[in-house]
Amino acid sequence: MKARMSRRRRSSAIVLVLAVLIALWSVVPIAWMVITSIKPQSAIRTTDLLAPFTPTLDSFAQLFSGANQAATFLLNSLIVTGVSTAVAVVLGTLAGYGLAHWRSRHTQGVAFWILSTRMAPIAAVIVPLFLMFRTVGLVNSTTGLIIAHLSFNLPFAIWLMTAFFRQVPASVTEAATLDGCSKQRTFTSIAVPIARPGIVTTAVLCAVFSWNDYAFASALGGPRSSTLPLAAGALVTQSGIDWGVLSALGVVVAAPMLIAGLAVRRHLVTGLSLGAVTGE
After folding, report:
1. pLDDT per position as a tens digit, 148-162
2. At 178, is the secondary structure helix, strand, or coil?
3. Is 149 contained in some domain?
4. What angle, 0 to 180 degrees and rounded to 10, lies between the N-to-C axes of helices 70-100 and 107-116?
5. Full-model pTM
6. What CATH number is given to the structural domain containing 96?
7. What are the pLDDT digits (tens) for 133-183?
8. Is residue 225 part of a domain?
9. What is residue 141's DSSP assignment?
């Protein structure tokens, strides 16, 4: 008995140490970036890493000055992420509900075909998309970026929502039908509220992809449609790298998704625990 308890204590100690190391691995770079973003230039350039300094927001002010155009990049990111996520979630919810309740021997085949359009790497589709977008005049436009993001987000949203709606008990929808609810009323009043954690999970995952996208933005974007990830490249010049402004940009890029994740963490954890990420 004592030997067994000793092994359990050692196992718990090992797990605790690993958890602390993983937490430090994740938190320290973010903390370092935040601290650097509020340091004055003199504190950033010093070799004394622990030297005291007076916090300042000069790096953020410089980031959003007219020369850097970060405000324009931020607006473009908000538009592209917001619209592409909203459209993907709405259409994915409708299509997912339909696939979840479609009784046919072709259901699995159609579901796999939709998901297979998301399996190709971005590098494999950038050139065809660029040629098509150039033909119809969508290069260097936020509309083109929204459509490009939808080409990846929509199949993913349909796949996720199909799995989430399959978790809704059939007895619930059947009871609503017996009570006289139409198919539309059953969908809006019964299925959607039950699958709300799944909808939130899908929205967050789609938003993270669009917000952090660099490949589509660099290949299909331009001066009028550049997003925040492209601003990092603009800050690296021949004269050097302004680490304060670059860290401020990192905070601006990371903060919205971090805040959104914390705000919906209850729904996000519930949605992921339904097993929809692994699919069926």
Report:
1. 999 889 988 988 888
2. helix
3. yes
4. 170
5. 0.80
6. 1.10.3720.10
7. 999 988 889 999 999 999 889 988 988 888 888 887 777 877 877 777 777
8. yes
9. S
Q: Mark whether 135 and 23 lie in a shared domain.
A: no
Residue 42 falls inside a structural domain: no
- Tokens linked to 260: 């959104």
Q: Which two tokens stand for residue 152?
A: 């990846």
d(CA 148, CA 150): 5
Quick one: 130 and 248 in the same domain?
Answer: yes
Together in a domain, 28 and 78: no
Tell me if 61 is assigned to some domain.
no
For residue 231 the two structure tokens come to 């601003």
Residue 101: which residues within 8 A CB-CB, separation 6 or more?
165, 173
pLDDT > 70 fraction of the chain, expressed in percent and rounded: 91
Structure tokens at 92: 């994915």
* Phi–psi pair at 23, nearest 5 degrees: -60, -45
Residues shown for the chain: 280
Domain count, the chain: 2
**Residue 237 backbone phi and psi in degrees, to 5:** -120, 175
Residue 167 domain boundaries? 67-273
Which residue, among 204, 193, 121, 191, has the nearest Cα to 162 in the 3D structure?
Answer: 191
In this structure, what token pair is assigned to residue 32? 């370092």
